[in-house]
Amino acid sequence: MPILAVLGLIGAKSWRVDRDHFSETTDRRSDGLVWHMTKALPTVNELLARYPGADTFRFGDTPDLVAELTGLVRSGKKRATCTHLAELEAGAQKPEVGRCDIALNFDGTPALVIKTLEVRETTFADMTEEMALMEGEDESLAGWRANHESYYRRHGVFEPDMVLFWERFDVVEDFGEIDV
User: Which among 102, 128, 143, 179 would be 20 to 30 A from 48, CA to CA?
Assistant: First the structure.
């Protein structure tokens, strides 16, 4: 039996939840009482069952970068990303129009579900300004090139003619916001 916790009071009723499947948000009412509301958070396995064929991935490779890029997606500023061929060779799925994929937080918990709307095969050198700016990370193509070259060099895969799969997407589910 899962460990149960009492998260708080709403009126005179206690709410009990399984800590592994719920998140908690706390608010202070105008009368000074603290109350808690919960929303079920799906596991990665539940999402993989809900979205057959989905891949899991992170926007970025460090805790700070994952948080920053996921935040850009949540704000609506980032609506595209790119995958380099080396990621596919390492086991990532090639982006596919219509498929939903699960973006993870750095700790491996679900952050978002995205749906691929468009895929273009290109090279680093042929990336257009329009495509780069849709990634929402930089203010210019030159900024995109500098930051992405640094990222790809850090992974030992940078070549000006390296193949990239640019992907435009929309957010289907966001697990960072609690709607109660």
Answer: 179
C-alpha–C-alpha distance, residues 85 and 64, integer Å: 24
6-17 pLDDT, tens digit per residue, is 333 333 323 233
Residue 168: strand pairing partners:
80, 118
Taking the C-alpha atoms of 92, 95, 99 and 104 in order, what is their torsion angle to the nearest 10 degrees?
A: 50
Q: Of 161, 131, 132, whose CA–CA distance to 145 is shortest?
A: 132
Q: Where are the beta strands (DSSP E) in 29-109?
A: 34-40, 56-57, 80-84, 100-104
* CB-CB neighbours of 99 under 10 Å: 18
CA dihedral 84, 85, 89, 91 (to 10 degrees): 40
Q: What is the pTM of this model?
A: 0.76
Which strands sit side by side in the sheet containing 56-57, from one edge to the other?
A: 56-57, 100-104, 110-123, 163-174, 80-84
Q: Taking residues 123-138, report their average pLDDT.
A: 97
